[in-house]
Amino acid sequence: MEQAREIASSGPLAAVLAGEWSPGGAVRSRKGLRQAVRDTLESLYHPVSSCRMGTDDEAVVDPQLRVRGVDGLRVADASVMPTLVRGNTNAPTMMVAERAADLITGRTVDPALTGTA
Ligand SMILES: Cc1cc2nc3c(=O)[nH]c(=O)nc-3n(C[C@H](O)[C@H](O)[C@H](O)COP(=O)(O)OP(=O)(O)OC[C@H]3O[C@@H](n4cnc5c(N)ncnc54)[C@H](O)[C@@H]3O)c2cc1C
User: Fold this and answer.
1) Over 80: is that where the pLDDT of 54 sits?
2) Is residue 5 over pLDDT 80?
3) What is a GO molecular function of this protein (predicted)?
4) Could you read off the pLDDT of 36-48 as tens digits, one per residue?
5) Under a CB-based contact definition with an 8 Å cutoff, are residues 57 and 85 in contact?
6) Which of 1, 27, 33, 83 could join 23 in a cystine, given CB atoms 3.0 to 4.6 angstroms apart?
């Protein structure tokens, strides 16, 4: 918050910003800033990676979404994303689901595998 204030009050940004909206310029102390964070902090509703996909020993699912060490079980949701995507998570989650359907049914649209690459 202190760095954000520093950035906002210097350079070209300072010329276009009207004033601090939250927590408001009157809150200056670290204690006050901490309290403001505690009072207003929330997640961005994009939890991911609790069943991270990967090829290393710590990965929960492999690149085919199969749970490592368990036969016949795949995970196809946002939890398999190795890291948080830069944008929103709903569309990539649906793509993971589409990919899972392809993997389960054996359908492929991979150009490298269909010979169209
Ligand atoms: C308030 C909010 C706003 C969001 N806004 C956006 C947005 O604008 N754009 C965007 O791209 N993303 C948005 N997201 C994120 C997006 O909704 C999620 O990333 C996405 O839905 C994750 O999909 P998922 O399948 O991993 O989990 P979920 O959609 O949570 O699906 C999990 C499903 O599993 C079911 N389930 C859980 N436990 C069990 C069980 N034991 N047995 C059976 N079923 C079970 C649940 O009922 C649920 O239906 C938002 C999320 C929230 C919370």
Assistant:
1) yes
2) yes
3) flavin adenine dinucleotide binding
4) 999 999 888 899 9
5) no
6) 27
Taking CA atoms, 44 is separated from 48, 86, 89, 115, in Å, by 11, 12, 10, 41
User: Quick one: which of 37, 6, 43 has its CA closest to 23?
Assistant: 37
**Ligand 1, atom 16, residue with closest C-alpha:** 90
* 65 ligand 1 Cβ < 6 A: no
- Write down the pLDDT at residue 115: 65
Report, as an integer, the average pLDDT of 86-92.
Answer: 94
Rounded Cα distance between 93 and 78, Å, is 5
Catalytic residue numbers, as ranges? 46
Reduced to 3 states, what is the DSSP secondary structure of residue 40?
A: helix
Distance 64 CA to ligand 1 centre (A): 21
C-alpha of residue 72 to centroid of ligand 1, in Å = 23
